[in-house]
């Protein structure tokens, strides 16, 4: 049987097309969270365990040249605490160079011309975390989707973020709390106790969460993260995801309420307000109602995860999204009196919430959407197919200190 020879023209065409086809084929090999877990993050009644998340993040790093994974410590119970570096392949090849620039700028031991030169040359360094507080399911469940989008999306906004930013992504800051939550929910799902809190501590020493330890650094998780933030990378932005939102809001975003600690540099406060305004602009342009600012959470206390960075001249961000249970819920508007700060349009809530129902899938999507704001490219009105275009739900959450 005679073998057919390959046409020279076909060989040339394949050689020319190979660079164009390679990225698509590589992206196709990157597993999605839905493929890995069997359900999309935030699906009603579904939760991914911390062991599943670890396996997924490792497979994501193995499959994508836009992610590197590093274990930065262990939890109080010995679970791995991981950090994902997400950026372009070119940036990841020069991680130590970008880290060195960020450190030199933060330490302030160079003259102004050198600082300006380094600022032009360097990359923005941004820290984002999830899964800190016990019983705030969505903040950890959304991180696999956010990592996947940032690694695979070819939308121009995400391409710009990868080119200009080195993202330090800590998907679960409190592994013990997340593991405790997931095991409890799976145990009581389908029973009258489905939406109750577990009758045991989420963290063996810090209790409900480790968000009160950042001025003492007693816990191993706090020490591991503080080393990255304040001794190695010196990020310009530190973004801490939480739940739930204040009453009758779908999500809380900066700016924060008064008072402001007078020891915080005014440039830091201005930076926080600028990123918060970018988040609000994104929600308004995408027709996503229910965001509220300047309510409940202030810039006074110095012991929280997003507050301590202020005293290192970093922009600390906090968002609080609604509905922290994996079980969906419909709210009766007559159950609670409207909150005047968010029920009608105001400077704190320019677009009040509307549908009285919540799902954790929408909460996960709302958390993902805020992360486009720190990238510096808010979406334009009417733009379709935005990589982070989503909606977020309404709640009647209990305010708290962060």
Q: Poorly predicted ranges (pLDDT <50, ≥5 residues)? A: 1-26, 377-401
* Helix percentage range: 25-40%
By oligomeric state, this entry counts as single chain
How confident is the prediction overall: mean pLDDT? 82
Which structural category do the helix and sheet elements fall into? alpha/beta
| Count of individual helical segments | 13
Q: Which shape, going by the Cα principal axes?
A: globular
- Give helix and strand order, one letter per element, not per position: HHHEEHHHEHHHEHHEEEHEEEEEH
Number of strands: 12
> Strand order of the main beta sheet, please?
1-2-4-3-5-10-6-8
Radius of gyration: 22 Å
- Percent strand equals 5-15%
Task: Compute the separation of the termini in Å.
Answer: 76 Å
Biggest β-sheet: count, sense, barrel? Answer: 8 strands, mixed
Your description of this structure?
The structure is a single chain. The protein has 402 residues and is an alpha/beta fold. 38% of the residues lie in helices and 13% in strands. It contains 13 helices and twelve strands. The protein has an eight-stranded mixed sheet, sandwiched between helices. Strand 1 and strand 2 form a beta hairpin. The longest helix has 22 residues, at 8-29. The protein is globular, with a radius of gyration of 22 Å. 46% of the residues are buried.
